[in-house]
Amino acid sequence: MVPTSSNSSLSPYQPLDGLREVKSGNMVATNLQNAAIELGMALQATVDLLDKKQVPQTALLNMPVIKKDKVDYYYSQLYVEPQDFLKTLPDLIKKNMASGDYASQ
Hints:
The chain contains 4 helices and 2 strands; from the N terminus they run αβαβαα. By secondary structure, it is mainly alpha-helical. The chain has one domain (18-99). A two-stranded antiparallel sheet has the order 1-2.
């Protein structure tokens, strides 16, 4: 939890949601942390390992910087139409595992 400014939409010491704060103009940028992709990647790596497939020895998640010009796209994925994004997740995870770009979405 972090203290927020007096003009923030959050009350003091409420967990900070970076996308909402960038969207409202209270922050200039945030890093995307998408639990669905992170969990999906971990589960796929586990399945691949159990299937005796090659898996990366190190998986670094690149958390893209989200500024005002891209916030609506990611905000929609997480808050407006999450089911649409989740439908694409299995194919996206396979593509990410193959490319090594673990945070692409």
